[in-house]
Design goal:
With about 375 residues, this protein is mostly helical. The chain is built from 19 helices and two strands.
Length: about 375
């Protein structure tokens, strides 16, 4: 049921992105004092992504005690092939096409004053009202997550290639993989590590907000925003499903911020501000390499950095989205053909469920402090 609901919504997520972003960009283009905000927001998210990925690489290297260089030689040919694949992603991703279409529609309709254009601009209001209703269904999704965790040991034992698995060490703690219960402990450790790194990054953003906005209340933020949206994000593992609720809560907590600034930042952030996903990608990669006995060092993570950075712009915001990274990362790391099947099964098996939940919770909640920082730095357009 959970997969059906989330999958059904995610199939129309590009349309939802268009209906939020296009009207908001249109309003900004019509207001000269806000015209440059969208571009500023995009470049800011790019810089933040670079910083967040660097932070995640350092944390993962420390947690798994990775050496600087694990093997000699650089898989330059594989890296080139991955780059070509990324160029294709820029053309084929429906989520990026939603962004392209939003920009085009805003530019074309900028000087049009037809009635239907005004009606079109009201779609974000409708989505925010829908968001207010989503808080009522959070317990249902949370219950379904509990069912998933209860059955997880059997699922892992049935799908992971036990004949190839070794053990993994995180912060010096050895996690064996000889039984389903031990696999579950490793899975929980990976999930908690993803959550810890992502939450630490979120704390850095909040510290910046607290420094910039003297009247910012951390208590109100957690009570009226974080604790109301995080359960839905955690239970559904879908940024797309939670976008209306995100818009709704931010509007009520920070009504002083201009509505177009809020909508553009949340809509763009739902695509570009997915630092939890990128963190989870590096964590699961390190765990998979450890389990399969593949050499992995800090330099290898840095080699994966450009690919992870760019593919992250095309992920759909749904459960299991790390599947998009698996193949390209195998190419970058030069995984032997004999181990490629085991790599895929292990990587995909470890990233579903709780790691998904923690990375999704970080992705969308990061949008709120990002909005406050952007509103402060780029002209205070809402004041």
């Amino acid at each position: 049921m959970l997969g059906w609901v989330v999958g059904g919504y995610s199939s129309v997520a590009p349309l939802a992105i268009f209906l939020i972003l296009a009207p908001s960009l249109l309003k900004m283009l019509r207001a000269d004092r806000q015209g440059g905000f969208a571009i500023s927001a995009l470049f800011w998210f790019v810089r933040v992504r670079i910083a967040a990925c660097s932070f995640a690489i350092v944390c993962v290297s420390v947690a798994f005690e990775l050496p600087w260089i694990a093997h000699g030689g650089l898989p330059l040919e594989a890296l080139r092939a991955s780059g070509e694949g990324l160029l294709g992603l820029l053309w084929h991703s429906p989520y990026l096409w939603a962004v392209y279409a939003s920009v085009a529609a805003a530019v074309i309709l900028r000087r049009t004053n037809r009635r239907w254009v005004e009606e079109f601009s009201r779609f974000p209001d409708l989505l925010e009202k829908i968001g207010g209703l989503l808080t009522a269904v959070v317990p249902v999704f949370t219950f379904l997550v509990g069912l998933h965790v209860v059955t997880l040991p059997e699922v892992l034992a049935a799908n992971l290639p036990a004949d190839r698995l070794a053990s993994a060490e995180i912060f010096g703690l050895n996690f064996a993989t000889d039984t389903a219960e031990n696999l579950l402990l490793l899975y929980l450790a990976i999930s908690l590590l993803t959550g810890t790194i992502s939450t630490s990054w979120h704390g850095i953003l909040l510290a910046r907000v607290r420094y910039l906005r003297s009247g910012f209340s951390v208590r109100s933020y957690f009570r009226d925003y974080f604790c109301r949206i995080y359960p839905l994000l955690w239970a559904t593992s879908s940024e797309a499903l939670a976008t209306p609720l995100n818009l709704y809560l931010v509007r009520h907590l920070f009504p002083e911020i201009d509505e177009t600034v809020r909508r553009v930042t949340i809509a763009v952030g739902s695509i570009f501000n997915i630092n939890g996903t990128l963190t989870c990608c590096f964590v699961v990669l390190a765990a998979t390499a450890s389990l399969l006995g593949l050499p992995l060092g800090l330099f290898d993570l840095l080699l994966c950095f450009p690919m992870v950075f760019l593919i992250g712009f095309g992920v759909p915001g749904i459960p299991g989205e790390l599947v998009l990274f698996a193949g390209p990362m195998m190419a970058v790391l030069g995984v032997p053909e004999a181990l490629q099947g085991a790599f895929l099964v292990t990587f995909l098996g470890l990233q579903v469920g709780l790691p998904d939940a923690f990375r999704t919770g970080a992705n969308s909640t990061d949008d709120c402090p990002s909005l406050l920082i952007l509103d402060h730095h780029y002209g205070g357009v809402s004041r």
